[in-house]
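This section describes the prediction task in plain terms. A model, or a person checking by hand, is given the sequence of a single protein chain and must write out its three-dimensional structure as a string of tokens. No templates, partner chains or ligands are provided. The sample shown here is typical of the held-out split.
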Amino acid sequence: MSRHIVCLTFDFDTASGFIARGLATPTPLSRGEFGARVGAGRILDLCKRHAIPTTWFTPGFTIESFPKECEAVVAGGHEIAHHSWAHVPPAMQSREEEEADMVRAIQSIRSLTGAAPRGYRSPSWDLSANTIDLLVKHGFDYDSSLMGDDYVPYKARNGDAAKVGEVLHFGTESGLIEMPISWTMDDHPHFEFYRTPDFLMPGLQSPRLVMESWKDEFRYMRQSSDWGVLTYTMHPYVIGRGYRMLALEDLVEFLAREGAVFMTMAEAAREARLRLEA
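The expected answer:
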């Protein structure tokens, strides 16, 4: 019997990503606040109406800066997963810095939920050479930062190595389940506009057009495989705008009609592990 799982995931960054990139003036901070105070509530209302469990990758910064909003996510029955403390990409950190940030965020999540997180997603989807090893060391079940497949979870490798002019060296398979993602299934590059002296992200695409592509991704998964997991990645300060919320609800209604099985990422990772280890 065919089974097609959908994970709606939300990177609850609020202002952490802006601050980590040196954008700490009032306007970017207010954009992050919109995600916490307004966008998150709209998303939770939508999920409640449709009885959909979701996963919120939440930095420790958000948990400690917006405790009531994070408590509302937990009260709604959603998974809180790890997304660092300060939203600094691990590839920019030493092993010691990365582990200290990871442990600090675990403590924040434990204080919020009463339990350690089961899953991890790196800031900016940029792992370091140490990340997989640290995730295994600290008892994580799954990661959602890599792009080695589209619908089929796999075991993340530890120790891949690449040098210019040499063949790729594949590391060893870890016990960590990789829940693959894609920039195309992320709201941020499609919709978000921001600029710095050195960078411009134009964004501002039509949400209806983007959602048609997101629908097609589910259609293709269903057409090409008997079992799979499709992960959508969204940010409350991005998708939480009113007109985008209308398009998101249309997507959710489409997926429900087409037989999608909505799960938290922890639930989907458990099912994937059973299949991989059968």
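For orientation: The two ends are 17 Å apart (CA to CA).
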